[in-house]
Give the backbone structure.
Amino acid sequence: MGTTEDDTAAERLRTLATHYIEPARTGTGIRGPRPTEARPPLNVNIVSHMAASVAEVIDRARADAPHAGHAPAVPDGIYQWWRDNTQHLDAEKRQARETVIYRQGLEHALAMGDHKVIRRHPCPACGCFGLFWRSTVGRAACSNLDCTDPLGLSRTWNLARLAHEHIAREFARTKRATI
Ligand SMILES: [Zn+2]
């Protein structure tokens, strides 16, 4: 299905699972009685973020394809599983699917502290590449001083909007290329 199917979201999910969840193993490796100090807890925020991401994909995949088989046990396989089970969908629904996957990819990057992913998107209002991530409100804000809402405040965008714009551009490009 062309350029929109990449596995960035899956790769990031895999990175989260392998590098951001496992607590550092600081033990000596010597077997014996349980250490008095507990191991550092799992990164609960990352664990719940991943669980919510997987649950959203499974819900949406089942809505698109009620007879889809079991979801893969490995979390980062869910995106391909969703695609494999929904190849029959029309372009509009495939675009909606890719938008969710792309938005989750952004969420995974932010969960790892990588805010640079936001800068690659033009502001949906003014088109400039001056967006930055405002963690306190969980939205991307435009740094263009002229790009304000009717109250004079910087325009801000949620990830769903940025994902929607990005995937819409990709689908339009693919469509043009195949005409
Ligand atoms: Zn702007």
The mean pLDDT is 88. Residues 86 and 94 are 8 Å apart (CA to CA).
